[in-house]
């Protein structure tokens, strides 16, 4: 994959704004609008944190609905601090820029993002300083019913700042879930010859029964304590999983990252959240262009989408299983019914069995003990039902706990 999951979700979240003359289509009927012009606008996704890591900047361009995402390649990217120290970035993948070595934002220091594109256009942010460091007090899950009356599991976060300096929070999460192929076989069919059809059974040498899938948040998740007497976030909902959600069929884990934000950064993401809300695309009162803190040094009238933020980050991870909250019932269903079928081994000069296997969509499950005249000797299933690698990785994550 060209970008990490968390990077891709931010790219999508920013690019899906489509305030620049794209057209939107619903699943029911098209929404038609006149498009007079389209502007190719630079999108900057850059958050410097207090984490000891290779810091990252993502650059892309706006694109019309149903067009491929455009990334900004060949740029010179750097961060300078108020002591004139410059941290250079290198492009490791198209549109993805990383520092060659790890470093962390330091309290009391001011930082500025500077970009020069391959075309020679220059951009700069204002100077930003690190927000107060605040740990997540608690991360936990409970059996709940959401606002639509759906039974499920909600992941909550608690945070508090006795000093009252935080107040604005943004959350992201990465979830990992165990996948067990429900119709797995220790052997598979190897095709030796297609004409004449010849096969053999071989023992699988790779793990194909148990895998681990992953996904990341796509929504803008914001919380604020400004309306409360104390700087405290209590029982803030991060993620809701319905009782029937396949992700909790086996063991599930979620890593939540809490960003403490400045009021300006929070306001930017709050506006971004309004734009990314599907209904707002059809609103009669559009909120207008999203103004960030990055400007063009080449053309003062040029629009740029993005906000350079310097945020403290804390994280927590929890594990749970469906049975922890719903001991009375079966686990959620697999994503496929996994029905078997038995293509003929030979028919009119070709092999339906081999043809099915060569599509890559099916895999061997078992012997067909009692085939009918129009069935073959072996049972096949959709590949994800017998090979978990279709849905995830067969490598156990370093953090995984049973």
Number of helices: 5
Q: Quaternary state, please?
A: single chain
Helix content class: under 10%
- Most strands sheet: 15 strands, mixed
The value of Rg in angstroms is: 26 Å
> Structural class from helices and strands?
mainly beta
Q: How much strand content do the residues show?
A: 35-45%
Shape by Cα distribution: globular
User: How many angstroms separate the termini?
Assistant: 28 Å
Question: Uncertain runs with pLDDT below 50, 5 residues or more?
Answer: 1-5, 7-35, 278-287
Please tally the β strands and state the result.
Answer: 22
Give an account of the 3D structure.
With 402 residues, the chain is mainly β. Helices cover 10% and strands 39% of the residues. The protein is built from 5 helices and 22 strands. It has a 15-stranded mixed β-sheet that branches.
What key attributes describe this structure?
402 residues, mainly beta, 15-stranded mixed β-sheet, three-stranded antiparallel β-sheet, 5 helices, 10% helix, 39% strand, globular, disordered N terminus, DUF4249, DUF4249 domain-containing protein
Summed up, what is this model?
This is DUF4249 domain-containing protein. This protein is mainly β and 402 residues long. It is built from 5 helices and 22 strands.
Describe the secondary-structure layout.
Layout: H1 5-15, E1 42-49, E2 56-61, E3 70-71, E4 76-81, E5 86-93, E6 96-98, E7 110-116, E8 122-125, E9 128-129, E10 138-145, E11 151-160, E12 168-180, E13 187-194, E14 197-203, E15 210-216, E16 221-224, E17 232-242, E18 251-260, H2 263-276, E19 294-296, E20 304-321, H3 322-325, H4 352-358, E21 362-367, E22 378-382, H5 383-386
Parallel strand pairs: 1-20
Antiparallel strand pairs: 1-2, 2-3, 2-6, 4-5, 4-7, 5-6, 7-8, 7-9, 8-19, 10-11, 11-17, 12-15, 12-16, 12-18, 13-14, 18-20, 21-22
